[in-house]
Amino acid sequence: MAMVKSIPTFVLRLMALGATISATIVMAASHDSATVLNLKFDAKYTNSPSFKYFVIVNAIASGYGLITLFLPSKSSLWRLVLVLDLL
């Protein structure tokens, strides 16, 4: 019965890990340019401190998701994981 309860949790955590990794890659690799009044503006994530912050936070969230995937369900750290999930 415990295995049946852990499979949906594993699948949800795997989906969250995939979402954070893909968001990190998209934000770090994206760039765009716009032309306004014959002036070309290049936009990259390194141009804004807030984008740098979001790339770093997404990378940390990806690491957290990877760690929680391989944490045993009988571990006493699951209470800490529950608190960190709520944050």
**Strands, count:** 2
Amount of beta strand: 5-15%
Structural class by secondary-structure content: alpha+beta
Strand order of the largest sheet: 1-2
Distance between the termini: 29 Å
> Average pLDDT value?
79
Radius of gyration: 18 Å
- The DSSP helix count reads 3
Considering DSSP H and I runs of 4 or more, what fraction of the residues is helical?
A: 55-70%
Offer a quick outline of the entry.
This protein is of the alpha+beta class.
Structure description:
The model has no long low-confidence stretch (mean pLDDT 79). A two-stranded antiparallel ribbon has the order 1-2. Strand 1 and strand 2 form a beta hairpin. It has a domain at 44-86. It is 67% helix and 14% strand. It has 87 residues and is an alpha+beta fold. The two termini are 29 Å apart.
Fill in the keyword field for this structure.
elongated; alpha+beta; 3 helices; two-stranded antiparallel sheet; 87 residues; 67% helix
Topology summary:
Blueprint (H helix, E strand, L loop, with lengths): L1 H28 L1 E6 L2 E6 L4 H21 L8 H9 L1
Antiparallel strand pairs: 1-2
Helix pairs in contact: 1-2
